[in-house]
Specification:
The protein is of the alpha/beta class. 29% of the residues lie in helices and 25% in strands.
């Protein structure tokens, strides 16, 4: 483990000063204490946390902010960096970051130098003035290629020259996209994108599957550990070729496609049309014809589509499931539910509803996806032991 020169000011890492084995022990202990404070009888079901083989350069996506030369502070030098810990309006220049890729730092330095020479201003959160806002860097850990998203408040003629400069210096860059974000919101997401170079996607490979990712599509940030996570889900589900799987909040279809090799049919549901387009393309690329991916709100899908499911896989946002969506999951009465959570507190809020709906908790597996942070992923398996009609 390398101790970063920017620690502890940078918000990218919170535990980099702690040896990784100790980080794992702390995460496992904290999760166990939190979980058993709600469900003490389930303590024996909690498996030892699964750690990461790679603790540096493991992230496949990071968002960097432009700082320095803005209309209110013209004397500062332009730079790219990360937010200061606990601050949304302060940016730390980066000399080297151990989270993404060694090449990324060179891309950031070249970009900052280029726009400084062109005297392009950086965006100011308070005044909503300035041009350069963020640079999102996606890096395929299996192909080695890069996709860059330059987020700006307005277009500048030099953007095309910047893209060509980067491509010449870094031939592993596959695609460069410029994204127009004119609101005062501190977010890099926007639907207004223009391709400057290459094709607007990146491909990642995972355990024999190929996933095509568009600029804003979701994919597990830690590629290598995603394989560990998905193998855990596959093991918990224990599917056969007659089972129908309902993959809720499916994103680009990664979990559903992983399970489709064992299942009879997989139906994925997500309200993000870009993610569903990726999922459909990924099914085609991997020749998995036993899949169906739908652009729908999960809550509404469960209400109006009475499709039978032997297994329901849930991988919701950090806030967990909306109450009506959770209620309708229970009403579906699938033989088993695999709940994948990136927020244990949301999981603990949702679990009682599932348990009261006839399900029994069978296994709990914490997985560390983010070394040097306080975050973990948790996979839980619930099986239907008594139906709602019987309980009534």
């Amino acid at each position: 483990m390398s101790l970063c020169a920017h620690f502890p000011l940078c918000g990218g890492c919170q535990k980099r000063d702690i040896p990784y084995p100790q980080q794992l022990l702390e995460k496992e202990t904290q999760f166990t204490q939190l979980f058993t404070s709600h469900f003490p009888d389930f303590a024996p079901l909690i498996q030892p946390i699964l750690g990461c083989t790679l603790q540096d350069y493991f992230r496949n996506k990071m968002e960097f902010s432009f700082g320095g030369t803005d209309p209110s502070e013209p004397e500062q030098n332009l730079f790219l960096g990360l937010k200061k810990r606990g601050r949304f309006d302060a940016i730390i220049p980066l000399e080297h970051c151990y989270l993404h890729s060694p090449t990324t730092q060179d891309i950031l330095a070249t970009t900052a130098a280029f726009f400084a020479e062109k005297k392009i201003t950086t965006w100011n959160y308070y005044t909503n003035e300035g041009t350069l806002r963020y640079l999102t860097v996606r890096h395929s850990k299996t192909t080695g290629e890069f996709l860059l998203i330059l987020v700006v408040s307005q277009y500048a003629p030099c953007f095309q020259d910047w893209a060509q400069t980067l491509k010449t210096q870094f031939p592993q860059i596959k695609s460069i996209v410029v994204a127009l974000q004119t609101t005062q919101s501190d977010t890099a997401y926007t639907d207004h994108t223009t391709v400057l170079l290459g094709e607007p996607f990146l491909e990642e490979e995972l355990d024999g599957l190929t996933f095509r990712l568009s600029p804003y599509s979701f994919f597990q940030t830690n590629t290598h550990q995603a394989k560990v996570l998905y193998k855990t889900i596959e093991s918990f589900a224990n599917l056969n070729n007659t089972d129908t799987v309902l993959d809720l909040y499916c994103g680009t279809g990664t979990i559903g496609l992983y399970l489709a090799r064992k299942a009879g049919k997989v139906i994925g549901v997500d309200e993000n049309p870009h993610s569903i387009a990726n999922a459909q393309k990924n099914a085609e690329i991997n020749r998995l014809s036993n899949t169906l991916f739908l652009t729908e709100n999960v809550k509404n899908f469960l209400k109006f589509n009475p499709v039978h499911a032997d297994c329901i896989v849930i991988d919701p946002p950090r806030d967990g499931l909306a109450p009506k969506a959770l209620k309708r999951v229970v009403e579906r009465q699938a033989n088993q539910v695999i709940y994948v959570s990136c927020n244990p507190k949301s999981l603990l809020r949702d679990l009682p509803v599932l348990l009261q709906g006839g399900y029994t908790l069978e296994a709990i597996q914490p997985v560390d996806m983010f070394p040097h942070s306080g975050h973990i992923e948790v996979v839980t398996k619930l099986i239907l032991t008594h139906s709602l009609s019987h309980s009534r």
